[in-house]
Design goal:
By secondary structure, the protein is mostly beta strands. Helix content is 2%, strand content 56%.
Amino acid sequence: DPVHTNGREAFVGLKGGFGQIELGRLKSAYKYYGGVKYDPFVTTELEARRYGGMSTGAFGHNSFLSDMLAYQGKFGMVSMRITYGLDEQGGTDGDYTAGLKFGNKKWEAGVALAHDDNGATAADDAYDAMKVFGKVNFGNMAIRAQYETTEDENGTTTNGNIKQEGEILFAGFDVKFGGKTTLTIQLAQNTVEVAGSPDQEGDYAAIGVTHKFTKKTRIFAGYGEMSGDNLDNVTGANNGRDAVTV
């Protein structure tokens, strides 16, 4: 599965006092440090990752990674995870993701990295991402945020093999009522820059309520919207989206 588009985790591993070692199709450290763990709407029509609130792709916040070796461990307040590509995926081996975080049940902060060395057309054909993230819980409320920077040497089909540089700022706020009902508000802004072209700019917002009947049963309802200007860095190529879901 070199293009990382299908299937979920499938691996063998060894777990002990030293931590955990895995080999196979694995979770990306970049995706699960902050990332989808920070989005209560993930896998719904209100999620951030498909609508401008988080980076996409297997080296962003979608899918899993094939032919990887991983190590993860927790040491007191410190947690870490590293995945390394042992076989060619889209051109070359040596792809990696890494995450490091500090914290406890009330707060956390950390950093994550991702690198995809495509190598299919040129030596500089690569994608890199970095993010810092953190959250704080106080009483019945929680605040979480992450800031991503991305650099894509491959560009888009519109722009050809050129460099794109992107930024995404995401923030979310939760408040619980009665222990089983949660109001969630999420906002994000994104920008993609290409030299000599207009900046692509986008906004994301979502608000919703989730009620948990049991650990396995819940109901939720919400509204989300996103907008994008100068898509693919083309002047006037604008689009938007509104969604109501139950």
